[in-house]
Amino acid sequence: MAKGVLEGVRIVEFEGMGPAPFCGMMLADHGADVVRISRPGGNQGGAPLPAAKFDVMGRGRRRIELDLKDPAAIATCLNLLEHADAMLEGYRPGVMERLGLGPDVVLAKNPRLAYARMTGWGQSGPYSPLAGHDINYIATNGALHGIGPADKPVPPLNLVGDFGGGAMFMAFGVVSAILNARTTGQGQVIDCAMVDGATSLMAAIWGLHGAGDWRDSRESNLIDGGAHFYATYRCGDGKWVAVGAIEPLFYKILLDKLGLDDPDLEAWGNPAKWAAMGARFQEKFLTRSRDEWTATFAGTDACFAPILSMGEAPADPHNVARATFVVVDGVTQPAPAPRFLRTPGAVQEKAAEPDGDTILAQWRAQ
User: Fold this and answer.
1) What backbone torsions phi and psi does residue 33 show, to the nearest 5 degrees?
2) DSSP secondary-structure letter at 112?
3) Residues 6+ apart with CB under 8 A from 11
């Protein structure tokens, strides 16, 4: 039985790709009973899904295979949804309606349900019926424009749209709607659009922009690589480090550990000098290896960190001490987050794959 802060919460997840499965993983990690409805053959949009042990975002689920073109399968879904607290789906607008599982039908069956819909563009608007991916959603809201070197925007993996702007907001919306339904007795539809969530993540930047404190070009601002004290540097061995000494106190420690005492470098707040200062920093960092610099900065408030590869990160002493990574079936993966001290989350044990009737009988009995 799943344990965690969401123990007793029942979720039906319609199998998909990207943010909706990540949201399901988060909820399962914290004790929700997440039942995934999979298509026969486990294929989404022509892309084969990974083998179960490597499907990190699919961990902790129970799974049922259903052909959603079969009326009997739709009936099974409706019976499960009648006893669920929330539903997750990530199809294009209109797909669930065509299947006979649209909000009007499902909420008539279960008025308390949190019906969460994940798309890139949202359920409305001129782009809503169009295909897209993370890079497209963050291109239209100003986020991608601000990321990368001066000469080229660079996609920040798919962290900003899919997972930050999508899954995280979906999880927040689901939990909020469940809490509201427990107070009011009424569920609701949650329109989770990655473009909306990623825009929300830019709130602080928009505030700076409005105040005239943010230049609308890359590598010209405090935290976009423009400032030499908030940047990355190559070391003598070809590896990289990151510094983020924004505050004067921390900047002074950074200078001290670098062995730099040029008075010009103390004028850290002058953007006109950032490029020249950065060149000095780069010259200095090239004199030692990354690990040598890591040893030099160890235990200081210089806001320094080595840039670790995925192969290196699990062995970092801080990550080891906090068990930031776990190994499941021989696969290294992130541990559940955030951390609840009284009701901690955990990667839930995989149950035998039941049929819909078995799960329905269990949910009815609870």
Assistant:
1) -90, 100
2) T
3) 24, 27, 28, 32, 33, 34, 35, 84, 85, 86, 87, 88, 174
Instruction: Tell me if 165 sits within 8 A of 198, measured CB to CB.
Output: yes
Pick the CATH number of 10-201+336-365 from 3.40.640.10, 3.30.70.790, 1.20.1250.20, 3.40.50.10540: 3.40.50.10540
Which CATH number is 230-315 given? Answer: 3.30.1540.10
Range name among 12-16, 71-75, 255-259, 261-265 with the lowest pLDDT average? 261-265
Q: At residue 354, what is the residue type?
A: P
Mean of pLDDT values over 155-161: 96
Predicted confidence (pLDDT) per residue in 233-248, tens digit = 999 999 999 999 999 9
Catalytic (active-site) positions: 133, 162
Which residues have C-beta within 8 Å of that of residue 49, sequence separation ≥ 6?
A: 42, 43, 55, 58
Pairwise CA distance, residues 365 & 251, whole Å: 61
For the chain, give every domain's residue range. 10-201+336-365, 230-315
β-strands 240-244, 230-234: how paired?
antiparallel
Asked if residue 289 lies in contact with residue 237, where contact means CB atoms within 8 angstroms, the answer is yes
Cis peptide before 334 (omega within 30 of 0): no
Give 64's strand partners: 37
Distance between CA 63 and CA 13 in Å, rounded?
9
Nearest to 243 by CA among 223, 263, 261, 269: 223
Residue 110's beta-bridge partner residues? none
**DSSP summary character for residue 11:** E
CA distance 56 to 50: 9
Q: Which carries the bigger pLDDT value, residue 357 or residue 271? A: 271
- Residue 266 has a pLDDT of 73
